[in-house]
Amino acid sequence: MSTIGKALILLDLVAGLDKDIGLTDLARLSDLDKATTRRFLVELEKHGFVEQDGETRKYRLGAAPVRLARIRQARFPFIAVAAPFVRVLAEETDETVHLSEFSGGRLATIHVETSSQAHRVIVDVGSTLPFHATASGIAFLSYLPQGEIDRALSKPLERFSPHTTVDAGEVRSLVRETTERGFSINRQGFEIGVISTAAPILAPNGRPVGSLAVAAPIARADTAKMLEIGARTRAAAKAIAESYYGAKR
Q: Which residues contact 31 (CB under 8 A, 6 or more apart)?
């Protein structure tokens, strides 16, 4: 492996952690000796990619990756990157596909490709997607830490239809099922006559930033069909993440 490759592995390790890390642990995780690890860290710190705490001597992600991420975001906005994948999925399934993003504590629809069929599901841009009552919400919850899931389900859950799951324990079961499968399926939980499937869009650290969903009239889509569409949705969500953040090597 090249010198640059080894340094980037170190950077990737530091970026993926939710706390500062010491030289010894970084050397162990990267399978490099301490002297080599330190040499790379010194160079990465010099250029702002990592920074060292003056008291603990541990390392964290520096400002340079954040600056580069902002530049990329400005040049390649999330919707612009995701829209082609949303459009292809809509063409493949011939159903309504919508993209949501988490911001300000809520999951909201930011882009929609509506089905060309006469009998179709309509989703409005800007609409809020309740975590417990929508396929998008369940998919988003499925990759959050347990504590955050508990907080999201701690308040009384609103009933939007006779089929809405309002028991927190049952919602947790749906979340576990979604985590294992990689996509959720929601049957009329938010709107009568609609069945949906969704997959989370994950940042490089594994946290969800939004969801990709396909919504269909329940009269046209049974469970078997939604399982097939769900697998396509999961693949498309992964492709969006790789295109937006860069494929993880």
A: none
